[in-house]
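Cross-posted from the bioinformatics board.
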Amino acid sequence: MLFKADYGNAPGGGRRRILRIQLLALLPVMLAALVNSGYQYFQGMALLPEFDGSDLRSRLVGILSVNPEAPGLYDYLAAGLAHVLPMLLLALLVGGFWERIIADRRGHPMEPGFVLVALLFVLLLPGAAAFSHIIFGMSCAVILGKAIFGGDGKSFINPALLGIVMVQVSYPAASVLHPLWSGMAGYAGSDAIALYHRGGEQAMAQAGIDTWSAFIGAIPGTLGTTSLLAIALGAALLLLTRVISWRLLAAQFIGLLLFVWLAAAFSDPSADVHSMPLHWHLLLGSFAFGAVFIACDPVASASTNPGRWIQGFLIAGLVVLIRVTNSTHPDAVIPVLLLVSLLAPLIDHAVIAWNIRQRARRHV
Amino acid sequence: MPGSTNFEISESSQLSMLGRDYRGVHFELLCEPGDRVRAGVAVMRDARRPEILFTAPSAGRIARIVRGARRKLVALQIEVDASDAVAECAAPAGQDQAAQRDFMLASGSWSSLRTRPFGNIPDPATQPAAVLITAIDSQPMAPPVAPVIDAFAAEFSAAVTMLGRISSAPLYICHAPEYRPAFDQASGARCKIFAGGPTAGLPGRHIQALCPIGFAGAEVWHIGYQETIALGHLLLHGRPWAQRIVALAGDAVLRPRCLAVTPGAALAELLEGELKDGSLQVLAGGDLYRQPLATEPAFLGASQRLLKVVRAAAEPAADDVGALDMEALNIGSLIPGDWLEANGPPGIYAVPLMRALQLGDVERARELGALELVEEDVDALSRVCVSNSNYGLLLRQVLDQLESTY
């Protein structure tokens, strides 16, 4: 009975349609995450002979894979499943548990939104995230990010984003990849963008990361954020069904273009990262994923059209600013999204106040 | 008869004047059931403003007077007879403002003027800040404006001249870019083009663009193009225009087309032999704005130009937001996507307005422009918003509060 959400005759049929589309849009991202996490796992195994593979997920890989010595697509998928599935099930279980308790206490039917929260939350974690972090993060996401505001669609911050932020703040090491996942011996960073921060183009070439592999997503990183191709497919679905605002999405990408150009124009030419080209900003790190799935969450973004443009440019500007000036946050997307989410109501407020003043001038 | 269209004429033996078409009017009856009336004879008047008359659109016998809760008039039904008796109305006594207004009041055409804010019949003692003629209908599948006005060009032009004289305020003719109606330039009317989507034809949008209302207590009057033709008909021929052009549309209609029907015609007669078999739903209005059908039996509303009939299954029950009960105010959470902006009243931020309406925040709603709106402007929002709120109803609650202090 735990997951029996009441879909009965409750109001908001359109809300479930939006949720279905959002879940469907995450499907290609999920697939890419499965294949890539398996791929990264076998890459790491080859580089780290001292890794014994005695943990639960490695033993699962041992059971599922057919040819671990020379792994193929099936083995990648199996290894990915062995890593991602336990995380996803646990996140769903924790989210559903709290959702059930809250629904019972309030006497409401269970809301289905936690499924999306769990999926987004897991996709923002590294493949070897500790189970205790998932329990902690999902609890924060559902209770602090959603329930205390009154449930689905009533919070002003994306619950999955809040969960991730709570995990990263409480366990800073959790956002650092296990050496096994970096694809490079001795390297520990959050994802491929940290690698760029250390060594620029040279490090990219050394790690075997080129534009194509980054585009399809065969690079180290948090689960869902590596494949621009999969994210673009999801974004296309969300845009076609008008679930997300094209203005907000366009503002973020145009903003990125603008601020990358500004950073390159007014910066120290000796630092690689200042002149980090646009395509690496897009391909490495979680900007694309955050822009499409977190920032464009209709509930937690600005709700006026000028507000959407402002919010998009703000996100892009802050991401580029932190990326080029602060090497301790090579990716910067998560903290920026949190900050701008909190600012979105303020942006709306300013837009409305300006609109009211304009109207007052013209009134008869 | 001068002025005729190519539209197929649909005769009705029953017609009705609906109380809900005239907001805020306390009707005082000037006739009794069984009385024979001539076309153009006053059958009702506003008890509080007795100079505002409501005239019979056709000759016939008063069949029934339906009253609802608190004896509110629901409908005055007339059985049309073939006598074709007409009470000719006298031409205006002069060119001055008072004579023009007296003519409109005596002929019953004053009741087709509407005010913003609130959508009432204007008080004959007041002056508007502007008068708007809505010569555009952008509701999907609504009858085309151009052939109707062209067929009654003389009537339209005469009415424009008269509307220019009822006040010293500017007179605007709001029209679509592809059709500019002809009228007498001496009337001083100014043409304004409105384009861009189904909301382009809403008077709320025209007022927002031409004459925003909000702080100083001003009023804008507006009138539809067919009502304008009806006024011109009275002016030129002395008798009421016994037709309205109405579009018949929807996937359950055998031959979707435009019909020239009697004002207030009974829908059962109008739709006989026009519909496919099966479980059907008749909608008073279209995708942009619709009302639930008024009474049983149902009649055409005074300003209704589109009759849409769909298969009942095609319109899910959750879509039917018209029911006037408190359940309709059940508020779920609103998901502020930009699809709301496209369906909302133009020039007004939809999501902040919807939030203000949900919360009953009268002051914020007024600041955002609620005074320019009536139910029809926010009706589409009720259908695209996932919260199941009836914004028409919420807006009217806010407007009622504003009206009591305006």
